[in-house]
């Protein structure tokens, strides 16, 4: 699909790009509203959202993206009606079943981030098969946040470090930001450069809370099932138009101050 993107890089600076492509993360929002406007069941909106994901993944390299993280199912989504939860679980399976051959062939590595506890055995089997099948691919990294919540991931990371301390393998004084980040489920990828939310909403919704410290935020007024490569390209163009300082000041500001 795209040139090598340096997937081996695990400790890039906040917002640092990985190899030939930046890291974009998307909160895929608006499936239900898309279906409601058309008088359709919500399930059909979710299915249309899967097609939008396929389009967006396929077109991401042309937009300059080398790592794409998408929010598929949150730890809070368990509160939805049981039928809708079942539909969302089925969509992950359907996506993998329909696209795994292509993703593997085109060098895409698939990772599922989030808690595995509580997932049905057939869902776990699909997750493990997708990760195993694409483990050695390095042209593009697709991370699907599934049964994921930013707060839950931070709590889990803290627990993992505490367990190391209990076993005598670390001391509390060892902990710094880089070490803590290594315990997060996202540790295999650099921090996101860009976080996009679709549907016109302006919230992070518990997505990549630790990792988004220096990410640029772009909110797009398009419902997810209508999303495609052209929308991602527009978000990347907006990202590239911004001046990222990482807590410092621009060179021209220094000159003026002097």
Strand order of the largest sheet: 3-4-2-1-5-6
Q: Care to count the β-strands?
A: 6
Report the principal-axis shape.
globular
Strand content: 15-25%
Helix count, DSSP H or I runs of 4 or more residues = 8
CATH topology of the domain at 22-150 and 194-241: Undecaprenyl pyrophosphate synthetase
Main sheet specs: 6 strands, parallel
CATH architecture of the domain at 22-150 and 194-241: 3-Layer(aba) Sandwich
Q: Which structural class do you get from the secondary structure elements?
A: alpha/beta
CATH class type of the domain at 22-150 and 194-241: Alpha Beta
Mean pLDDT, nearest integer? 89
Low-pLDDT ranges:
1-19
Fraction of helical residues: 40-55%
* Radius of gyration computed on alpha carbons: 19 Å
- Element order: H for helix, E for strand: EHHEHEHEHHEEHH
Tell me the name of the CATH homologous superfamily of the domain at 22-150 and 194-241. Answer: Decaprenyl diphosphate synthase-like
The end-to-end distance, rounded to whole angstroms, is 47 Å
């Amino acid at each position: 699909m795209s040139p090598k993107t340096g997937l081996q890089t695990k400790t890039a600076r906040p917002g640092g790009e990985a190899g030939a492509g930046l890291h974009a993360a998307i909160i895929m929002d608006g499936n239900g509203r898309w279906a409601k406007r058309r008088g359709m069941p919500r399930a059909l909106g979710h299915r249309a959202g899967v097609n939008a994901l396929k389009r967006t993944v396929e077109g991401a390299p042309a937009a300059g993206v080398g790592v794409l993280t998408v929010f598929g199912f949150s730890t809070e989504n368990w509160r939805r009606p049981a039928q809708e939860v079942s539909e969302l679980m089925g969509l992950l399976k359907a996506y993998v079943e329909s696209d795994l051959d292509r993703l593997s062939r085109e060098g895409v590595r698939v990772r599922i981030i989030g808690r595995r506890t509580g997932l049905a055995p057939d869902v776990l089997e699909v997750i493990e098969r997708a990760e195993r099948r694409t483990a050695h691919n390095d042209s593009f990294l697709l991370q699907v946040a599934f049964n994921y919540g930013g707060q839950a991931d931070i709590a889990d990371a803290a627990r993992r470090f505490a367990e190391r301390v209990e076993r005598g393998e670390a001391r509390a004084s060892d902990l710094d930001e880089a070490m803590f980040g290594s315990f997060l489920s996202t540790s295999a990828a650099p921090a996101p450069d860009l976080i996009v939310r679709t549907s016109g909403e302006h919230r992070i919704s518990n997505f990549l809370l630790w990792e988004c410290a220096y990410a640029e935020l772009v909110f797009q007024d398009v419902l997810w099932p209508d999303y495609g490569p052209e929308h991602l390209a527009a978000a990347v163009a907006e990202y590239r138009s911004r001046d990222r300082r990482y807590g410092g000041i621009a060179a021209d500001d220094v000159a003026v101050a002097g």
